[in-house]
Amino acid sequence: MRGAPPSPSWYGAHAACATRDGGLVYASDKAVCVLDGETGAVRGLVGTKARALAVCAATTSETREGEDDEGGGAREVVVCGCADKVLRTLDARAMAFVGKTMTGGHKHEVTATCARGAGEVASGCRDGTVAVWRVLGNGSPTCAYKAIDGPITCMAAVGDVIAVGGANGTVCALNARSGATHRVAASGYGEITSLAWTTGGVGEGETKDLLAVGSRERRVTIWALEGDKLVNTHELRLPKPKAALSEAQRGRVWVAVAWSPRASGDDKGDNECVELVTSGQGGDLLSWRVPLKFGDGVEEVTEAKTFGPRDVAHTRTVFTIDIADDTCWSTSLDRKVACWDLETVEQRWSFTALGGYVYDLATDAEDPFAVAIACGDGTVHGWDLSPTLSSGLGESLLWKGIPNTKVTAIARKPRSEVVAFGLDDGRVGCFDVTTGKFACYPECHGASVRALQWFEICNVGEESGTFTLTSLGADGSLWRWMETFDPASCDTKKSGIVDARKFGKYLDLARLCGGETAKDTRSIEAFDYSSVFGRFAIGWSDGELSAHDFGEEKWRRREHSKSVSRVKWHPECDDDASDFTAWLATSSTSGSVIIHGVGGDVICALPRAAVYDIAWSQQKSVALLACALHGAIKVWRIDKTVNEFHPVNIAVLRGHFGKVMCVQFATHDDETIISGGDDKTFRVWRYKDDEHAPRENETPANKDSAAVVDENAACESPTKSSKTQKPCVVKTKKVRSSGLSGALLKPSHEESTPTGIRASQEAVVALARRAYKGANDPLSANELKYGPSGLGLYEDADAAMALLMNEARLASDENPSTHELERAVALHMYRGDYAHAAATVLQASEAPISHELMSLFVGGGYDVWSIVAAAQRERLEIAGEHQLAAMVSLSLHDVRGAIQTLRRGGLVRDAAALAAARLLPTDELLLDTRRELAAVEETRGGMESAAKAHISIRAPAAAVRALIRADAGGALAAANLALECGLTGPQERRTIVRAALELAETDDFDRAVAMLADLAAILRRRDSDVAVTDAITAATAPDSRVAVELTRRLRALELDA
What we know:
The protein is of the alpha+beta class and 1057 residues long. Among the domains are: 3-62 and 73-265 and 272-352, YVTN repeat-like/Quinoprotein amine dehydrogenase (Methylamine Dehydrogenase, Chain H, 7 Propeller); 612-694; 964-1056, no CATH class. 22% of the residues lie in helices and 34% in strands. The protein is built from 20 helices and 56 strands. The strands form 13 sheets. The chain has a 7-stranded antiparallel sheet, with no helix packed on it. Strand 20 and strand 21 form a beta hairpin. The longest helix is centred in the last third of the chain and has 19 residues, at 754-772. It is extended and about 115 Å long. 44% of the residues are buried. It holds the Pfam family WD40. It comes from Ostreococcus lucimarinus (strain CCE9901). One of its GO terms (molecular function) is mRNA 3'-UTR binding. WD repeats lie at residues 653-695.
């Protein structure tokens, strides 16, 4: 693979590993990438079914001296632990997975792997289980142990001991043979981030196995293995970073460790110290010399050498470090992969991988080797296509981008160092490639920017003109900016926005071209300028195409059934002497790709496929069109034969794992194609290579041609307005197959038997006799069927009606299946006989009729529908489906029946709502329903709701009774209700007095006296001889202080009155 790979995975101790042949392998989401360790060039990329979380290099057997790997000796492979709980074995040379998938050892995703000697590998998962496997074995684990509680984050093995690090800060030394474990708390807080073993000589020929442990505590501890136990011997405190760290970096501490094979020793061959490489804070790499001194305490190591220089170091957290001989590789949160020299502690090479989808590519004829890559991580990368590039690694970071955005469109300004960019939030701006400075226009689209294009406007007689920028948003807005700016020199605010008064004006091309009128719901989905005259082609959301010349509409055609996703003028479309004058290629979300000519006439069409982008070759006197599909790119040559053109597939470029989102022909070479996709890769192809030749018998239905049309085959925009949002393709639930969904008349199995063939031949002769000789004998029952002897289908209408009736009768014989019953109903409806169809359904079963069949009987008119609906209502009630039964009653306009059905089903509230909406206020059924509602509410304890129901039927006394509660203050609402309704009965008087006394007990005498005064006033108006003061005395003890005070105040109020 030539191109830019995806970035390594983050927050994993085993995201990368080095191989014996000098390669570097790392995991990246659902792919595994293999690099050349010396140059950084990509050897290959292999996709996985699930996310690859851990990789490690392993061998299949003991290495034999002098034996070549390819000759049957040791074979090095890479074992990948995946999120689907399995391990897969990758042959890094053949770039293919080999052997059996290792399954059955884990119940959770595999998070760590390590080689264990020759021919074995160990893996750990999120529940703390460690499994040991034979490399390229039978796919089952040889043993499994519970090592720690909680997720396993990292592993390393030496001999029979496997060191296991966990998210809980513990390290376990697991003996894979005996199953013995020894756990130590290597971190007071935070997870263990990395483990690494080494063996050092400690004197007199003795050696010790040392384990380096990195954790989130910003320190590294070293443990000696004594027997099966770990003893802490050294501690390394990470120095403070030289550069200031952001708050996010301070919170994302990750310490990676790796032992260097270089060590210093004495004359006896014993090591005095060993070298350890660790990550520091903020992206530094540190080299430590660990003395092999073992005393009673813990030896502290403080001095470390920093890899440099600083301007080439990582800028963010380092996650993996791998060492082979004198070379060190590292991966980081800044998406860099770097190679370092351990002797000089300096960088050999590095590149920034792609951290998001590749949404767009931009080239410039003035600088044909330079490619700009729009990435979903918010950055813009560059790639050098120069064939003289020595290392083959042409990646560079052109622009770091704006945080938390995606670059969805880019365009290089001709004859300058300026690149225009569009973001997923609708902003449009430019940046300078040389300085990295950027600025944004003050106005932005309502959705993500879909496309950008520069166009040169020249006055008459001028050779050069002014370049203008046109941008298209996913909301259909199409703007040509009136002014352009130089981001390296223009004045901007702190937010990077240029002066709105000078640069905020634009020409609304969507409105100019008729895309935004009051009654028009269409929107612009794609556009393109012709290279010389600036003819303007527009693709619309309703499948229409239009061509414009400086605002004047030249033609408008509709050849696509769905939205147009891409429009591209042929490079020679402005040349009247060319065979390709006015040629325009268009693609649609319906899967159609069409070549148009003068006036939009269709010249030819390509086979249907889900196309995400199209591009013409710049080669002269030829029409080559590249189509980006799912997982492949197809190159078509449009050939001319006599008076017509037809497409010929000349190459299929396979390699992408997902959608190819952008494709272009290189400007410097007619045989080179560049592409990018949602697999986060940028690729460079030579489409004339033999490996890309179309396969024999390849048809559009082949999988990698992506013939299945994707409704969202247009440009994948991260955000899109609701106006133009297309529905995602969702896997729908499989619908139950029925007689209504399949064929009603199917060939019988007897048709291909000798008897069936003979009967069919006789029937053909009989039909010819009836048609040509006038034979009119009545058709038999056997001839009124569809089968070898059937003739009714080929006769007149009466015979066809008799055929349908006979088939329906046969299908509805005794105990028909559901399939046959539905088939019989459909056959009767073919005849227009809904009455027979209804009788067939009603006689077949006492169960409710299916909703699909019920909906069909509407076609029989009210007479048929009323019979079926009445029967359906009864069946639904028996089945307990009272709500559905009520709906059926309403379909017959039987409101009273629906109300009674709901009441019988206990749905009294629904019945009351229906009655209140559809019956007169004085209707007795409405009153009865509300009485039942009040009783139901009282039964459940909803006294307030019951009171409302009582009031609605003019029963205020019952409402007062329902509102009274036994607890303190429970009479106040009832008393207020009684006063509002003017009730003065004994029960109401007692309630009002009780409420007044409760108010008085809380020292609220004013409200209490006012309540009693209202009661007394009502009694006086009705000439009642009942005294309120007597009611107070009767309700309390004679010497009650509250009653005495309340009586005094009430009498004083009466005297004043």
